[in-house]
């Protein structure tokens, strides 16, 4: 039941991100005196470990206006996967990472039934957290 609630909440969150991202692009295009973009590429170590979680997260980032997943570094048994995200409109790397980690927490709440309390370092830690042998 909680996954359904988190799923509906995540879909609403993504729709809101699409609407506000589109509004940001339009406002930066047509309002005089504002710098259009501050492009940067940020490295995002993930708490997502399964292929489904990584794929959903990368798709969510790419569907949001102003962000794009440029590359994915596969995870190993000792290191989590890493995304390289091109962000256009964030003021700093910290603010870009903050928004991406918020999105990831909401996604993990949907896929796992609850938000993670901390970043998992290995696939084994995630499996133990989920109660898998």
Describe the structure.
- Keywords: Cell membrane, Membrane, Transmembrane, Transmembrane helix.
- Belongs to the CPA3 antiporters (TC 2.A.63) subunit E family.
- This is Multicomponent Na+:H+ antiporter subunit E.
- With 133 residues, this protein is α+β, with helices and mostly antiparallel strands.
- Residues 120-124 have low confidence and may be disordered.
- Helices cover 52% and strands 14% of the residues.
- The protein has helices at residues 2-30, 51-63, 93-112, 123-129, and strands at residues 40-45, 67-73, 82-87.
- Strands 1-3-2 form a three-stranded antiparallel beta sheet, covered by helices on one side.
- The chain has one domain (2-129).
- The protein contains four helices and three strands, in the order H-E-H-E-E-H-H.
Any descriptors?
single chain, 133 residues, alpha+beta, 3-stranded antiparallel β-sheet, 3 strands, 52% helix, 14% strand
What's a quick, concise take on this entry?
By secondary structure, the chain is of the alpha+beta class. It is 52% helix and 14% strand.
């Amino acid at each position: 039941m909680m996954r359904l609630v988190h799923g509906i909440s995540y879909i609403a969150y993504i729709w809101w991100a699409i609407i506000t991202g589109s509004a940001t692009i339009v406002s930066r295009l047509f309002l005089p005196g504002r710098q259009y973009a501050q492009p940067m590429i940020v490295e995002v170590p993930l708490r997502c470990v399964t292929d489904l979680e990584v794929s959903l997260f990368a798709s969510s980032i790419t569907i949001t206006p102003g962000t794009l997943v440029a590359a994915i570094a596969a995870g190993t048994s000792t290191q989590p996967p890493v995304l390289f995200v091109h962000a256009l409109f964030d003021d700093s790397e910290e603010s870009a990472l903050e928004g991406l980690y918020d999105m990831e927490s909401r996604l993990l709440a949907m896929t796992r039934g609850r938000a993670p309390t901390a970043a998992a370092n290995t696939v084994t830690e995630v499996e133990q957290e989920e109660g898998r042998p």
